[in-house]
Amino acid sequence: MSHKFIISRRQLLKTTAAGAALGIASSTFAVGRAAAADLTVGFVYVGPRDDYGYNQAHAEGAAVVKALAGVTVVEEENVPETVDVTKTMESMINLDGATLLFPTSFGYFNPFMLDTAAKFGDIQFRHCGGLWTDKNPTNTGSYFGYIGMGQYLNGIAAGHASKSKKIGFVAAKPIPQVLLNINSFLLGARSVDPEITCQVIFTGEWSLAVKEAEATNALIDQGADVITCHVDSPKVVVQTAAGRGAHVCGYHANQSPLAPEMYLTGAEWNWGKVYTDFVTAMKEGKPLPNFVRGGLKDGFVKMSPLGPAVSDKARAQFEATHAEIMKGGFSVIKGPLKDNKGNVIASAGQSYAEDAIELESMDYLVEGVVGATS
Amino acid sequence: MTVEATDAQASIPGDKGGPALVEWIARRSEGIVIPLAAILVGLAAFSVFVAFLGKSPFDLFGLMVKGGFGSWFSIQNTLARAAPLLLAALCVALPARLGLVVIGGEGAIVLGGVAAAAAAAIALPAVGILPPAFLWVAMALAGMVAGGMWIGLVGFLRHYRAVNETISSLLMAYIGIALMNNFVEGPLRDPSSLNKPSTAPLPADHMIGNIPGMDVHWGLVAGIVACVLSWVLMEKTRWGFAARIAGGNVRAAQIQGLAVGPLILAFTALAGAFAGLAGMIEVAAVQGSANASLAAGYGYTGILVAFLARHNPLAIIPVAFLLGGIEASGGLIQRRLELPDATVLVLQGMLFIIILFSETYYGRFRIFNPDLWKRRA
Amino acid sequence: MAATEIGLWGVPLAILAGAIRVSTPFIFVSLGEAITERSGRINLGLEGTLVFGAMIAYAIAYLTGSPWLGVLAAMASGAVFGLFHGWICKFPKVNDIAIGIAMMQFGLGMAFFFGKAFIQPVAPHLPAIGFGWWSSVPQVRAALDVNVLFLVGIALAIALYWAFRNTRIGLVIRVVGDSSDAARAMGLNPDAVRLLATAAGGALAAAGGAYLSLYYPGSWTEGISSGQGLMAVALVIFARWNPLGCLAAAILFGGAGALGPALQSVGVTGGYYLFYAAPYVLTLVIMIVTSSPGRAVAGAPGELSITR
Known about the structure:
The complex is a heterotrimer of chains A (about 375), B (about 375) and C (about 300). Chain B is built from 14 helices and no strands. With about 375 residues, chain B is mainly α. Chain B has a domain at about 85-320. In chain B, α4 packs across α10 (about 260-285). Chain C has a two-stranded antiparallel ribbon with strand order 1-2. In chain C, α1 (about 10-40) packs antiparallel against α11 (about 245-255) and α1 runs antiparallel to α12. At the B-C interface, α5, α6, α11 and α13 of B face α4, α10, α13 and α14 of C.
C-alpha cells in the first residue's frame, strides 16, 4: 500500500506542474505563508546561520532572495553531512513545496544531493562548491566564486603591513579550495616583497575555537605579524590575532567590527547576487545553468573596505591590482612557479587564469609557504 | 500450566481467565502510562516556553506531528534518523547491565566505519566474481572487529587494570576520531576526493539499498534485530543473568563462581561490535565512503537513548523512534516558525529531564500493583 | 611589535603558554565537579552549564560593559542549573548520570537559543596580569599574560584541598559522599548537602565558561567549547577526587593541547591529527600506568554511582 502511495505521488508530479501540486498539498497545513508564494526556495546550512563566516555569508544571500516579491525562503541550519541532509531536502520538497534547493556545504554534494536529485527530477538543486560534470543529473548544478583572487588582494595588503616579512594562515584542512587561498595569499604578499614567507597551521576541523586560537598564537610566536584564515567562523582568529597586536585579513564575511584598528581588508562572498540570478531565472521560466563560477568582476566575491592601518602605498597597489582583476584574465598562479618541495608548477610563460579548472584540484603549496599538505 | 501467586510478575495471560489478565495489563501498563504521561507533561512545559516566545504552541505541535509522524514521508524521515541510534544505544545499554557507564561509543562507530572502508578496498577486486553480499559481510566483520576491540579494550582496562571505563571510553572516543581523520586524510585518502577527504567510494551498485517499499536503508532492520537479540541475551540466557548479577554486586558474583572478567570482556566487546556495525552501515548504506562525517554524534545521542530506555534493549526501539521523530520535525519547526535549530535541543532537554524524573513514580501508584489490591482486600 | 626569532623554543613556550591559557576552564569545571562528586553525586551535565555560562557571561559583559559582572551572572546561572540537578536527583530512582546528560542538552539548547543575539557584538575581555615584564622577548611576555581567573583557580584548588581535610564543611561533604546512612546518623541531611554541593559545582563550571567567552579564546560562538566540560568531569576521576590532582590534570591537559599547533609552527607537519590527540593519549597512558587492580576505588566517594 505504501509503495502505491509513492508511485501515485510520482505520477502526480509528472502530470501536474510540480510547484502548483505541492503548493496545494502543503497549503492544507501551511502556517499561512507557503501557500501565497509561487516559488519556494530552500537553503541548508552546515553550521549556525550567524557564525560570522561561511554560513552567515550564505544566510545573508538568502536574506536578499527573501526580499524578492513572490519568493518564500525556507532555511535549516546545523544540518550534518549525513542522512539528515537528504531528509531535510526531501522535507523541504514534500512539506514546504520547495522547487529550488541550495545545499550550501561541500559535503552535501555526493552522495546526498545527487541521490536526492535523481529521485526528484522536477526539482532544481544548486550546490555551493561542488564540481558539477555532465555525468551528474541535469537538474543539479554547482556554483562557486574565485575567492582566491580576494586572498591575493588580502596578501597585497598583508605584504605591505608585515614588518617581520612573515605572515600566517590558519587553515582547516588541506583541500584544494583551502590550498588555493593559502597560495594566493602568499603570492599576493610576494608581489610586494618576494622575501615574504607564509606559515600555515592546519587545525583539522572546520570549527574549533580553542584550537584556532592556539594556532593563531603559535603563528604569532613564530614571528608572523599578519594573519588570515580559512575556517568556517573566523571570529576567533580575528580577535586573537588583533589581541596579540597582529594585523588581520578577513574571510567569508566582513569581520572589521571585531578589530577595527587591525583589520586590513577581507575576502567576502557576495552570494546575494548569485542567488538572485538563480531565483530570477527560475521565476522567469528560463533554464538554470548547471556550472556557475564567477569572481570579483562578476560580483560573486567582494573585498571589505580597507582599514585605517593600510598605508597609501599599499592602497595604491591594492587598487591597481583590483582594477586589473576587474578587467579579467588576471592570473595568480603563473610561471615560473615551484611548489615548496621544489617541483615545477608552472614554467615561465605558463599561467592559469582564475577560471582554470586545474585550480579546483590543487594539491600543492607554493614555494614560500611553510607547511605541508599532509 | 499453573503459576504461583508470588511469581505473578512473570506470568502471562493464558488459561487463568479474566482477573489474571487484568492484573497482567495493570502491571505492564505502568511502563507505558508513566513515560507517556511524562511526555505529555514535557510537551506542556515546552509549550509554555514557546508561548513566551510569542509563537503558538498549537502551530508548533501541529508541525511536530506533521514533520515527525503525520505522513508516510514523515514516518520514513523519522525511521531513517532513528536507525543509527539503535546500535549506538546498545553500545551503552549492554555494558550498563554490568554496571559500566561507557560513553565513548562514538570512537567505535568511526573506527568501525574506517575498518569497513579499508576492508572494502581490499575485498572489492574479488567482488566481480562474488556477489555484493560477500563485500558487505567482509565490511561488517571488519567494522565489528574494530569496534569490538576498541570498546573491549575499555572493558579489559576496567577489569584487569581498574581503569575507570567512563573516562577511558571518552578519551578513546577522541583518540578514535583522530585516528579516523588521520587515515581518511592520509593513507586511505582517495586522491579524487577533492574538497572532502574520503576513502575510495563504493560503486553505486554495491551500496546497501533501501528496505523494499520504503525510503529507509536496511540499517534500520539490522538495528532492530540487534536490539531484539540483545534483549534475548539479557533476559533469556544465563550469560545475561550472570551479567545482571555481576552488575548488581561484583563480589557476590565472584563468590557464586561467576567469571566476571570474561563476562565484562564479552559484553564490552559485543557493545563495541554493535557500534562498529553502525559505522559500517553509515559507510555502506549512507556515505559510500569513510570520511569525517562519520563523527556525526550518534555515539553521544546513543547515551541518551540508552538511559531513557533504562538500558532495556527492547525499549531502545521506541525511544530511538521518539528521538528520530523530534529531529525530523525539528527541521519543519525551524522553517515554518523561523525558530533557531536550538529550539529542538531545548525541547529534547526538557522532555528528557521530565521522562527521567518520572522514574521516581514507578511503584508509587496502587493501580499498577495488583499485590496491593489484594492486601487491601 | 619587535620580531624575535625563537625557533624551536616556540614548542616549550607554547606548552607553557597553553598550560596557562587553555587549562583554566578545565580547572574550574573539575574543581566544581570534585565538590559535587565528593558529596556522592555526579553531574555529567556540566558541559551544558559551561556553555550556558559562556553565553550569559558574554551577554552580560556586553550589555553592562563589565566582564566581572558577566562572570558573576554566569556563576549565578550555573548555580541555578546545579540546584535544579541537585533537587531533581534527590527523588528516589532518579538516575543522576542520566539527568546530567539530559541537562547537558538543555543547557546547550538554552545557550544557543538565547545566544543568537550575542554572536555579532564584541564584549569587553577580562583583564590579564603581565608576569613577563622581566623579559624583552615579546613571545615570552605574551605567554606570561596570566588571567586573574587562572590565579583564582590555583588558589581555589589549594583552598579546597585544605578545606576537605581541615574544615567542618569539608568533613560534612566527605561524610555525606561516603555514606548516606552514616551522615544521617550524625544528624546531617544528605540531600541538602548534595544540593548545595551540586550548586557550587554548577557555579564553578559556569565560571569556566565565562573564561572561555571573555578571555580565551574570548568570543561567543556556538563552537566555543569542544567538549571541555565533559572532559573536565572525566578528569576528576583521573585526579581521584583530589583538588590538587584536578589542578595538575587540567594544566597537563592544557599544555598537551598546545603541542599540535606549536609543532606545526616549527615545521613538524605530518600526522597532525595524532599530535592533536596528545592530551587524550597522555591522560589515558597515565591512567593505565597509575592504576592497578588492587587500588580500584582509592579515594572514590562511597555513594558515587559511577564508581560503584
